[in-house]
Protein 1
Amino acid sequence: MFFVVIALLLALDWYAFQGIRTLTANWPSAWAQPVRWVFWIASLLPVLMVLPGRDFWNQYPGARQAMSVVFSLYVGFLVSKLVFVLPQLIEDIVRLFQGMGAQMGLTAKSGDQFMPSRRRFVSQVAIGLAAVPFTAFLYGILKGKYDYTIHRHTLRIAGLPEAFRGFTITQISDVHAGSFDNRSAVQRGLDMVADLKSDLLVFTGDMVNNRSTEFEPWVEAFGRLQAPLGKFSILGNHDYGDYFSWPSAEDKAQDLTLLKNFHQEAGFRLLLNENINLEKDGERITLVGVENWGKGFVQHGDLNKALENAPSDTVKILLSHDPSHWEEHVKNHQTHIHLTLSGHTHGMQMGVEIPGFKWSPIKYRYPKWAGMYSEQERYLNVNRGFGFLGFSGRVGIWPEITQIELVPLG
């Protein structure tokens, strides 16, 4: 399968190069040749860098982040090439029919050529169109991945105690600390979290990519965040170390223990299938936290266990990393859970969001993939994520800090 993919990519490169060659045909050789070489280097170098394997690059400090950026630029270049070849493909289909018509005597023939020559104008249009996604990807890699955006929601909750009128919750999710490559930019995002001055701060999973040590340099920075009613967190699918090759099961277990300790050092109360009451002026609501439960992912979450001994008459807020948990269990659970806070999807880190319209390919995997949803008087908020993973950037789907204000219904 790997070689089939490589063959398809090479075919795309060859076809795209025909357009580059047409575009530069009348250029001086001193300009045309460097452009053509740059095209092939940008197309082939990332593929060649993958061949030694991940373990090879992990030997070198910073190589993982560098490889992630190179891979991300390659993805942007690949998407741009797909846009670039589309006008050429349409032109080639037209040229093919023109050539067939000429051979059958239906149209005038041009010399002895079967097909008319490519038009330089089409390649010029194609390069203009391809520049749009390439510029978007370049912005997303260089700046967009740290373009933190605050999303605010006001929810009317039936049965909310009067003492909690105007109660505010800040939610962050999917930090993926192992991907960070700009400390000052991340600190700016944390300062935005602090400036909201919410009553409660929650983190809904995926603190790291693979290993707990990725978060160690950030413990102090996250520890400076404060909230009057506390800071609470849960685990996401990446926090269990399932995507790393451990020498032994004991090493993997020790890493999870270390990550839990880092949560504590950063001031977060980690909820592991349990609940806690939050009190204000003699009244209370219940905060529930489950371990990860995801459709197609690790399923350590146990909602029934998490609800044990929870008061039956309180408003309940659930922290659950994967929104598929809400679809599969939470929204129809016998216990009325008023608000669920999730993350996980990242909004795929690319898509389109404009007033009144949002779209990302992730919607075909997760129907509820970003923002606030409501069914049966139960709310679900899917945070777009604070960090990034795999693709070292964000295009159209910016990193999110959520603030939710609760008010009584009626």
Note: The first strand starts at residue 149 and ends at 157.
Protein 2
Amino acid sequence: MIARLKGLLDEIGTDWVVIDVSGVGYLVYCPGRVIGNLPGVGQPVSMHIETHVREDHIHLYGFSTALERECFRMLTTVQGVGAKVGLAILGTLTVDELTTAIVAQDKAMLSRPDGVGPRLAARLMTELKDKILSLGGSFAPKPVTASAGEAGATGAVSAETGAAADAISALVNLGYGRAEAFGAVGRVTQEKGDNIGLNALIPAALKELGQ
């Protein structure tokens, strides 16, 4: 199995690249985000590779980091997520954004990538909510007991008093996405502590959001 390629970037397509490794050109399918961050043709590149072997083909999928590759593997365990949809998801959302969307149960954010409708977004939330944090990305919230309004969510958000849940609800009502609000409230509680009151939490979260 090919796990990594290091060579010169030979060609760039809409969802693929060719990497020249000692005169051999490897066709590698990549998320759009990865392709957008590549150097020019002829420049050295290194990619983490996921190899899929089938009876009629061998496909290589390339990622900037091992974390992205692990996330791709996890995504493709979900029914309805093939390699193409997995690449589309990671081309639209970073691993941290995907993690936030899943733990925040933000169906709208998960439906942004091409090929992900409401049903598949719901399946992603259900099947990955207990797995996604195992990837260990920079978004590493701790589990908490959520209030009724945040049932099933996990994160660095204290819901014991309901202040975090109320703050998230208020931010969503102001027009922010659920995952966006969840992340802002989580960062504030991490910095200022779980006992911060609602009156202080909402302005601090708005500041995190750049307001």
Note: Confidence is low (pLDDT under 50) at residues 140-161.
